[in-house]
Amino acid sequence: MPVSATDVVVLGGGVIGAACAWRLARRGLRVILVDPAPGSGASGAAAGMLAPVSEVQPGEEPLLRLGCHAAQGYPDFVRELERVSGVVTGYRRCGTLAVALTADDRARLAENRRLQAGLGLTVEALTGRRCRDLEPMLDPGVSAGTLIPDDHQVDPRRLLEALRIAATAAGVVTVQGSGTPERVDEALAGVRLDSGTLVRAPRVVLATGAWSRSVVPAVRPVKGQILRLRMPAGEHVLRRTVRAVVHGRDVYLVPRENGELVVGATSEDVGLDQRVTAGAVHDLLRDAQALVPAVSELELTGTTARCRPGTPDNLPLIGPSVVPGLTLATGHHRNGVLLCAVTADAVAAALIDGEVPEGPVRACDPRRPGPARSADIVTTGRDTAAAATAGRR
């Protein structure tokens, strides 16, 4: 059904865009979501770890606070979404086990644990034997570990399905195609579709992940490659997420209740390159097998490469930009699945209430000082920046 005007256009149909569209529609706005292939980007390829504790880095306390805030509210978000959509999202409070194989690995693990404990996070040091008590299929060479009970997981593909159903039920209209925010006489006019149609809207939400860089040059694509394996019916090689550093490379194994085992992920600054490479597949399989030898016997069911949106300070860009009417919801890097609900709530509050709510999300203001500031936005007249949602297949 052609639509020429609406209250708000959301560009991007991953978990961030879909969650924003749902929340905005639930609050009474007419919403059009534009994406050439909804769910085909980084969201649909993600492992689904909700891991603010495991992934904390020195100097990134604002991101940690945001992640922990999001994790705390995730059960309520999932309950509401599952009730509305009828889709089970695969949310599990399974925890993470970080393990070490070598002396250098043990030193790094201990350093991470000191950082986590120093920030008041719940972590428990384990011997290698205790690690194998928890996960019997671990290699005998595992010499130490850290149990992180507050990191959980969800199945991103089911989450996307639930969000699409919930958004549609709330009245969101999805247009499959590309679109670019457009100004007329310095005012935001709406979104120009690749068909040439201008969808008039006073408000636009940019949630196009790594492809946001056509509008926000501060966003950079970070390529990640993952593998999907199949565990034998009725058997579980692992019960919880296992993470480690093997030969200097980070690797994680995420078991699903449906028998899938996700192995990832590389982190490559190679631009918008979504090719699966033989070297990455080899390294991931070798590193996963070093941790869990039984991996070599599992069926390899899929390989995927997608680009995640990074920012210079690793904080996402959430909230009003310097361009009146243009709200950003991008730059979530590895945390889009974790942060989708808090991002959607913040965007809805900004557009409807006029202000992002108090709390950790305010650190993600796109107008903050620094290299990620949205003063670097390429505002889009008809003949300027490339379509923000183009080319993601």
What does this structure look like?
The protein has an eight-stranded mixed β-sheet, with helices on both faces. A six-stranded mixed β-sheet has the order 8-2-1-12-19-18, with helices on one face. A three-stranded antiparallel β-sheet has the order 9-10-11, with no helix packed on it. The protein is α/β, with parallel strands linked by helices and 393 residues long. A hairpin with a 2-residue loop joins strand 9 (179-184) and strand 10. Helix content is 28%, strand content 26%.
The main pleated sheet reads as: 8 strands, mixed
- Helix percent reads 25-40%
Task: Supply the number of helical segments.
Answer: 8
The total strand number stands at 19
Strand percentage: 25-35%
Which consecutive residue ranges, at least 5 long each, have pLDDT under 50?
382-388
Please write the string of helix (H) and strand (E) elements. Answer: EHEHEHEHEHEEHEEEEEEEEEHEEEH
- Average pLDDT taken over every residue: 91
List keywords for this structure.
single chain, 393 residues, alpha/beta, eight-stranded mixed sheet, 8 helices, 26% strand
Topology of this structure?
Elements: E1 8-11, H1 15-26, E2 31-35, H2 42-45, E3 49-50, H3 61-85, E4 96-100, H4 103-118, E5 124-127, H5 128-134, E6 144-148, E7 152-153, H6 156-169, E8 173-176, E9 179-184, E10 187-193, E11 198-200, E12 203-206, E13 220-230, E14 241-246, E15 249-255, E16 260-264, H7 278-291, E17 299-310, E18 317-320, E19 326-330, H8 336-353
Parallel strand pairs: 1-2, 1-12, 2-8, 4-14, 12-19
Antiparallel strand pairs: 3-7, 4-6, 5-6, 9-10, 10-11, 13-16, 13-17, 14-15, 15-16, 18-19
Helix pairs in contact: 1-6, 1-8, 3-6, 3-8
